[in-house]
Amino acid sequence: MVEINGKTYTCGLIGNPVEHTMSPVIHNNLADATGENLVYVPFHVATGLLGDAVKGAFGLNILGMNVTVPYKSDVIPFLSDIDPLAERIGAVNTLVRTSEGYKGYNTDMPGLLRAMKKDGVSVEGENIILLGAGGVARAVAMLLADNGASKIYILNRTVDKAQKIADEINGYVGKNIVEVKRNDEYSTLPQNVKYLAVQATSVGMYPKVDEAVIEDEAFYNMLHTGYDLIFNPLETKFMKLTKASGANAFHGYRMLLYQGVIAYELWTGKAVPDELAEEVYVKMLAAMNVD
Ligand code: NAP
């Protein structure tokens, strides 16, 4: 591990809560492996103290920060600059120190794309069912549209929220690439294609691991791949149902890895090779007590 001395850089995580974060495992192992004199620590930031935290971090010469729930949007007014992707998504999960203050980035979406590539899942030309219309689903819909998805069907319990996302993206790309449905209307989707489904609801997350947002076998028979963004548990009910239909299923733990890897690359200016990312991934699995 890094020997702390007068030249050690500090990076950290701000959020509330931060007690169960895996980010120290990612960044301290990366620092160790790349020989960077850097340590990463979680900072619990209480309600109402976000501005003080960002200002204080800058005053303490902190090199970079991750930002987690509930501050990913709230942090934006405290930045000196924002990357265009993060601005469009409206959420920042990484702060990078500049001479004027912190510049905000979103590494969650590039992280998801890198994880999907690693898992052998392509977006280009795909017919995609996106389950959910929350903050993450909105960003995922943008990512899918930006990366050549042929068609995106957003299925959500609250259709209005999905419609808002669809209007925004269709306006941005200049054609009707996104359509919306209620969760129970999946049988009205074209049945002559197989779909990539991205599960971006919170249904099935620990501790409610026996739930899936759609439980009908007929839905899963429409898929060739199911990609769940949930990472706890590592095999969700959505994934079990996907596998039972003969389709491929993936979880969100690699997305978590790669959002961290990309943040680390922004802070240090050094590319993290895939083999090293995979070594860190094994350490994350060990920290979660699974092989
Ligand atoms: P959010 O804004 O709270 O949105 C939650 C979504 O789940 C909404 O679409 C909501 O539908 C739906 N939902 C919740 N309970 C439901 C129920 N009982 N029945 C049907 N639909 C239900 O959450 P978020 O911030 O977008 O996060 C979504 C997921 O992404 C979380 O599970 C999180 O673990 C995951 N995530 C993963 C990573 C990673 O690195 N792998 C990073 C970030 C987030 P309504 O619109 O109808 O309420």
State the helix count: 10
Write down how many β-strands occur, each being a DSSP E stretch of 2 or more residues: 12
The helix fraction, in percent, is: 25-40%
Mind telling me the C-alpha Rg? 19 Å
Shape: globular
Q: How far from one another are the termini? A: 23 Å
Low-confidence segments, given as residue ranges, are none
As laid out across the biggest beta sheet, the strand order is 2-1-3-5-6-4
Coarse structural class: alpha/beta
What is the average per-residue confidence, as pLDDT, rounded to a whole number? 97
Approximate strand percentage: 15-25%
Q: H/E order of the elements?
A: EHEHEEHEEHEHEHEEHEHEHH
Describe it.
- By secondary structure, the protein is of the alpha/beta class.
- Helix content is about 35%, strand content about 20%.
- The chain has ten helices and twelve strands.
- The chain has helices spanning about 25-35, 50-60, 85-90, 110-120, 135-145, 160-175, 215-220, 235-245, 255-270, 275-285, and strands at about 10-15, 40-45, 65, 80, 95, 100-105, 125-130, 150-155, 180, 195-200, 225-230, 250.
- It has a six-stranded mixed sheet, sandwiched between helices. Strands 9-8-7-10-11-12 form a six-stranded parallel sheet, with helices on both faces.
- Helix 1 crosses helix 9 (about 255-270) and helix 9 crosses helix 10.
- About 45% of the residues are buried.
- The mean pLDDT is about 95.
- Bound molecules: NADP nicotinamide-adenine-dinucleotide phosphate.
